[in-house]
Amino acid sequence: MKTESISQELKQLEKNLQTMIAAENPILYSAAEQLFNAGGKRIRPAIILMIAKLINKEHNISTEQKRLAEITEIIHTASLVHDDIVDNCDTRRGKGTVHTIFNNKIAVLAGDFLFAQSSWYLANLNNLKVVKTISKIITDFAEGEVQQGLKSFDNLISIQEYTEKSFYKTASLIACSCKATAMLNYDNNSKENDFYLYGKHLGLAFQIIDDILDITGSTESLGKPAGLDLKNGNLTAPLIFTLIEKKELPKIINREFQSQGDVLKAITLIKQTNSIQKAKDLAEEHIQLAIHILKTKYNNKDNRDLISVCYHVTDRIN
């Protein structure tokens, strides 16, 4: 992913994040800092900064848009802290998760603290439309977790239900933050909708690729255990496509992968079909829709970085 055009802004973002999550309680601060120190590509704030440059006539990024990029990363980080507890994930990006280093209680409080900090900085943007748009993300996170919980180990789940859950859990954050970036440009509403759709399709593709990697990747490459989604009853696109072809798969799901080797057996069944390719094709559809928006409405050299983000998402499995 090309980030040269916003390299200085990303460096400043790293410094600002440390200041923004400062807390008087050393344990709370240490828990929140733990996840930031684990690294990450900062894809979400990078997208915001790129959009800000693209839609501004002078290619400047406003102070409010830079702050929005920081807020978005804090919200994303808060969601990861809570996700890791729900999913019983002991490692992330190859390092121990907050709840394994401290405990569940501290991790929940650290996540809540990050959500609270993001809300405070969001309110200080003094833009009610942006506040409403970004606040919806946190509601969507909860909706996504509930939907995922209700469909846990449910072998009747459809691709439509999977896509809806994926929107709430992943795509909403990218879609709403892209929309809010356009709002902060004080231009017209058409740009807001364009970048909402760009973020939505990019986010859905990102989640599908993540779910493919859970099947095809190694613990070392993922930075967390492979097959964790299956183990937790989170049935994703590759498995849903396989259910149509492999009649023994529902039996394994119904016993909730409790027998020894069940997760490996399910992964083997998935790989015996063309389900991974079908999932890739689904992700590619969303990527092409995102690129189409950029090429038809913002077709100039300044859209190259945002298009490179699209290709970066699918390149993760090549």
TrEMBL record:
Top-rank taxon, per record: Eukaryota
Cross-referenced SUPFAM superfamilies: Terpenoid synthases
Cofactor(s) needed for function: Mg(2+)
Name of this chain's protein: Prenyl transferase
Pfam families: polyprenyl_synt (PF00348)
Organism of origin: Polysiphonia scopulorum
Transport listed as a keyword: no
Keywords: Chloroplast, Isoprene biosynthesis, Magnesium, Metal-binding, Plastid, Transferase
Family: Belongs to the FPP/GGPP synthase family.
GO BP of this protein: isoprenoid biosynthetic process; quinone biosynthetic process
GO molecular function terms listed in the Swiss-Prot or TrEMBL record: metal ion binding; prenyltransferase activity
CDD domains recorded: Trans_IPPS_HT
